[in-house]
Each structure stands twice: as structure tokens, then as C-alpha cells.
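Form 7-S
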Amino acid sequence: MRDLDELTSWYADWSSLRVAVLGLGATGFAAADTLTELRCAVLVVAAEADEERIDLLSVIGARYSPQPDRDVIPPDLFSFDPELIVVSPGYAPDHPLVAWAREGGIPIWGDVELAWRLRDKVAPPAHWNLIAGSSGVEMTSLLAAHLLVGGGRRYVVAGSVGMLALDAVRDPVGFDGLIVALSPAQLQWITRSGPGALRPEVSVCLTVDPASDLPQEVFGRVYENTAIACVYNHADEATMHLVEDADVQEGCRAIGVGLGAPGRSDLGMVGDIVVDRAFLDERHSTALELTTHGELAEVDLATAELLPRVLAACAVARAHGVSPAEVRTALATFMPATG
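Output:
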């Protein structure tokens, strides 16, 4: 069995590694395409798949094995004897194929972990920032990237929104950074430690649905190993506790966002003014104006539902040095998304 701990670079020796990819949607195909480019031996297993994607697998040098019965392990998978399983987000941890892999001691990675390990394809590697939660992920991610682009950075949204993470790390030009939007399904496959653990610059979780089938601990994975700032929502106490429980890098700060007057290290509202009391040296006694409620209303961003997402996106941008003036200008040109 190969030592997969060594596979933390595009330029590591991936050749001939036997990898089974579960699923042949957009994510599964991107994983198969990436792995064949790395000269791995790839078998894709899926319950159903688009015929065009099945045909393309033979073009890129991968094989396909259907799994018509969810509870039956395809014979091709047995004979392939995979050294690694890469799962698409649609595969839950209790799926029979996942259980079979675990029983056999086969390592299992999500597509985001694979992308993280390959992030150095274009130098210098992009900074990663993670956004997760039960709601608001799409808009927060898109707005954060918009603000960073407005501050002169080359950023893109990847993951469950925008580009696939694997496509983003393979972009031939590369990016200064990624805003990686993580669906709850992807969060289940995020590892908290070891060579495949993500180490984001900034991480955000604004909502944790208490009725979710996922344990709160799963949402907390977004904060693990963060370097600069963990952004949480004062209106959702669970997000604060997730930050408290996270194992972060030395110097990482907890940054709260809310609709009330901000405490030190918070972003919030003073009257109708949106202020930053986190990313300035004099935060014990002053705050920086970013925009106003009226200006946000002009671009339909001033509702109580959307304001925490705006504040979180501003926190991401400010953590990366985007100036208050640049934030204000960029906010005025954003078209809000739902979700």
C-alpha cells in the first residue's frame, strides 16, 4: 500500500496509484480527470451517469463500473483493489461502498481534500478561505470574493458554488485566493488533522440548523487550523461555541458579526452605520465606517437576513487588507444572490 501522507503536492509521485472515484456527476468527473492527469489508475463507480461522461472517461484514460444495486459491491471494484477512494459529495458516510472501503482500511478523501493537496500546481498556491453553514453560504461566498476583487485581488468562488475546487486549483493562470464554499455534504469529508487537513486563512460559519441531521461538530470543521480569523454570528450562539472548540493556528482571532453595536474584534452596526471594530490597531477605542444601512438598501442588501452575510463577507475582505474605501465601493456594485 502506498504512503498517501506523501501525496500533498501536484508534483508528488501519483503515478500508478489505484484510485476508485465514487460518483460521475460534475465533481466525480473532475476528480477522475484530475487523477488521470496525475497518471493514476482510475476506476469510476456510479449508480447512474450521463452517457457523455461515461464516453469521456475512456478518452481521458479512466474506466467505468456501474453499480445498479446500492447494496452490492461491483466485482470490478474488488478486482481493481483500490489504494484510495475519492467520494463525490452525494455519497454519505453510511453508503455501502464507503462502509466497504472503511472495513478494508482503504483511505477515503473528499474532492475538497484532493484539491487542497494539489493546490500548488500553479505557484504561488492560492490562499484558501472557507465558508459553511446551514444557510447563506452562496451569497456570503460571492460577496466576499466580490469585495476581494474590488480590493485588487484575483479571487474566485469554488466548491459548492462557482467553480469546482478541482477546476480552480488546475486553472492555468491561478488565483491569489479562493473562497471555498462548503456544502454540508462536503463538510462530512473534511478531515481535521493530518497531511490532508485544510489550513484556511479565514473561515466563516453563520448558521447551524439545530434540526440538521448532521452533528454540530461537522459544521465546526470549517474552523479547524484557521490562520487569521474565525468569523461567527452573534445571532447564532452555536457558531461561537464551534469557534471556541476549534484547534486553530497561533494568532488566529475570533471575529463576531451582528446587527448590534460591535464589541472589540467585532463587525456590527452603530445606528445605521456599518462599522469594523476588528481590523484596526485602535479597536479598543474606535471603529472604522464601512458603509451605511441606506447605501446597502440601494443594492438590496439591508435586510435583517442579509446583513450578517454582508458583515461576514466584509470581515473576510478586511482580514486580507481590503481598505474600508474599497469595501464601500465594491458593496455598491454587488448584485445579491439568494441561498
